[in-house]
Design a protein that fits this description.
By secondary structure, the protein is an alpha+beta fold. It has helices at 17-31, 43-50, 54-66, 95-101, 120-126, 173-181, 199-205, and strands at residues 70-73, 77-80, 85-88, 106-117, 133-143, 146-156, 187-196, 212-222, 225-235, 239-242. The strands form three sheets. It has a six-stranded antiparallel sheet. A hairpin with a 3-residue loop joins strand 1 and strand 2.
Amino acid sequence: MTAASFQQPDRRRPEPLWFQVEEAIRAIIKSGEWSTGDQIPAEDRLCALFGVSRITLRHALRNLEDHGLLRREHGRGTFVRSTTLVAGTRELTSFTQEMRNIGVSVGSRILDCSLTKADAATAAALQIEEGDPVVRIRRLRLGNDEPIGIQTAQLSGARVPGFLDSGLLQGSLYEALERLYGIVPLEAQESYRVGTVPEADAELLDLAAGTPAFIVERITTDERGPFEYTVSTMRGDRYEIRSTLRAGRVPSNPRS
C-alpha cells in the first residue's frame, strides 16, 4: 500500500480532522484495499500518512471500532473486522438504518410473506387476542452480500390492512409502515439469549445446524401501542452486543 492510498485532511474544510480521517479510512475499507482480517498500519505510521496527531487519529479509530468496522486486539494491533452489526445503547432504528450507519451495504431476501393467526406468544406481545390476524414477514438479512441473520416480523393485521399487496415489502419495514399507515416507532423492548441455528435455517445462514447464535426478540410500539413482534436468529460472528455500564452513584469528592 502506498501513501497515495491515503487522503490527508483538508484543514480549510469545516469538518473536524478526526472526522475526515475516519471517512478516509472508511473509504479504504469499502474499496477493499483493506480486507476483512487485515491488520491496519501502526498508529505512528497512520499519523505520518494522514499528517495528523495521535489524539486525532485515535478519535477516528475509536469511532470506527464503535461502529464495528475495526477491532483492537491488545498486544497485537488493530484489524478490519467482518461485517458486524453492533447492538447496544443506540437509537430506535430499523435493521436497514443500522447497517447504513456502520457503512455496510444492506440487503434482504424475503423468505415468506403471509397472513396468519397469532399464537399465544405473538398475541401477548402485540396485545391482541390469540387467533387474531397477523402479517408474518420472514427475511434473510444481508450485509455486504453476506448473511447476518433471519428475522421473522409479525404485525398486527388490524393495524396494517392490505400491506401484503402494497408492493413495499422490500427495503426498510419501518419506512414502509410510516409511508402507508403513519406508524412511527417510539419505543422497543429487546431481549437477547444464546440459542442455536435450527436445521431449517442453517443453509441460509451458511452455518452448520446447531451453531451458537443470538436469538433476539423485539416488541416495538408507537403512540397506539405494540404493532410489531420480531424474533431474529443472528450469526454470533457477525452480530455483537456492546453496552456501556455506569456506576449507580456518584462518588463524593473529599475536597469539596
